């Protein structure tokens, strides 16, 4: 590493880079930003110094910073300087496309920082490929244009003629089912595609690969690259991301699901049925090839029938656990053999050069079949002991994921001598990062934790009703409904009620049916999520009840004055959590204290974070489920806003709300 002219401070390559970086970070926060009217915060500066120091030491660092700290600026300074010092871009991995846009879009944090520092920052987005149109699919839709198309389809096909980037953000009103007909998906044979040279997705990849400072990727793209990188390089292909010098995870507490999904294989019944019908419709196909479809069709039917009978119902999660039984394993083996047989016949087809199926298509199907076979093989090996499997409640697809995700993270990321920063408002409970570090399989890491700029002592009161009949669920519910009514009357609506299951939303509705409030109650199961949140924000007196609003909603101001935690968010039988429980058990630890309580604590902390969004917000958090003297009390306490007063008297809540 030598001198780099572009490092944003005076640096001749002989000096101590970490010291010079720290000096520059201090200068930016104490001089440059305040001079331009940007309000800096001590917590932000502390976080920025911590990140600068740990990145230079190539550490894995947890940078927890409460809402409103300005953590993005805190990591961006180091990210840009480090990219220029090393000559390799730094990856900032975000949890969603919307967050990527927020960071890079007009007037986003990067835009502002560049203006404050009067420098060009070359940051490019590596979006989820499903956010781009695929020219092949667009052509297919166009070829069906003689049939009557929906207005939305007509709109998108006309747009496809003129768009340069082909990104979904350019046509935000197009509904999902229409977009999915023209967008890229995993089934598209990009490697063999003749449109490759002109394709918008390929051009987008070429564009972000050339980023000099930052690649703003999403978690999915990052892990897709991480898990396939070595294999792609060995096969002489370009990895999805170019070589990078550091990675910073924004919303770092969310990475495990993306890591799992990208490491796993998805088996979709319709995909297999599509292959069967495709082969059946080939004109002049050999009998041997055609005969494979009968076996495959039967095996697919049988496998999915047994799979669905082996699912363990659970309303708390979108990922349903599966009982791995002998019937399922036999059906998986039969399906594997049927696919193997088909694959053999397809190879013969290629060798015979019959040209009944174009070679590119044959190769594309071969790849898909290969993927399904690998998943089935993994399931059957050791009776699934080394896998995490689930059935998606959303589309019925079957997922097979390697169990040793933490081992994979260690090999592919943590042992690479790269700085890795996890940034989020929720990485610990009460400053204890051990749950997350255990989940990631980390033994060597550093951490920093700062509260946001809010004065929780002044802004929040926590109310824990006393004298609940704790052991009797029916009595608890009746009494909780009465307390809920008093609370909603006291706050004049303006409340968010969080449950731990969708069915409890219905129970509360039934419990409240005889009460008539002078404000509207919005029920999660009676409307589309985005619409409900918007209405809750706009109709100040309304109440929102749901199990899916623990994170990701931002309702500043009066509309959210009371946050009612109806139930503590203990985790479900989600297979990813089950895998952690199993690991704890195998290590001789108690899965409750090692997994369930900390997981609940993190989700509760997220939920509590909904209440205070600005320095003018004030309000109450009510915990309806008794937790005093329970083994999980410390996790509940650790999740509450630091410094907030905890009372068990409703009058004190009343006076706090009046001040609002
Ligand atoms: S390269 Fe892939 S995304 Fe691009 S047009 Fe071809 S199949 Fe579609």
Describe the structure.
The chain folds into four domains: 17-122 and 211-262 and 406-450, Rossmann fold (3-Layer(aba) Sandwich); 130-200, no CATH class; 269-396, de novo design (two linked rop proteins) (Up-down Bundle), CATH 1.20.1440.60; 456-658, Rossmann fold (3-Layer(aba) Sandwich). Helix content is 48%, strand content 12%. The protein has 25 helices and 18 strands. Strands 3-4-2-5-10-1-11 form a seven-stranded parallel β-sheet. A hairpin with a 5-residue loop joins strand 8 and strand 9 (398-402). The longest helix has 27 residues, at 326-352. Residues 1-5 have low confidence and may be disordered. The chain binds iron/sulfur cluster. Iron/sulfur cluster is lined by residues 134-136, 184, 188-190, 193, 195-196, 199, 201-202.
Gap between N and C termini: 56 Å
Oligomer: single chain
Rg on CA atoms, Å = 27 Å
Structural class: alpha/beta
The CATH superfamily of the largest domain turns out to be: P-loop containing nucleotide triphosphate hydrolases
Named CATH topology of the largest domain: Rossmann fold
Bound molecules: iron/sulfur cluster
* Strand neighbour order, sheet with most strands: 3-4-2-5-10-1-11
Structural domain count:
4
Q: What share of residues is helical?
A: 40-55%
Strand content: 5-15%
Structure annotation, total helices:
25
Contiguous uncertain segments of 5+ residues: 1-5
Mean pLDDT figure: 91
**CATH architecture annotation of the largest domain:** 3-Layer(aba) Sandwich
Cα shape:
globular
Major sheet, described briefly?
Answer: 7 strands, parallel
Overall CATH class of the largest domain: Alpha Beta
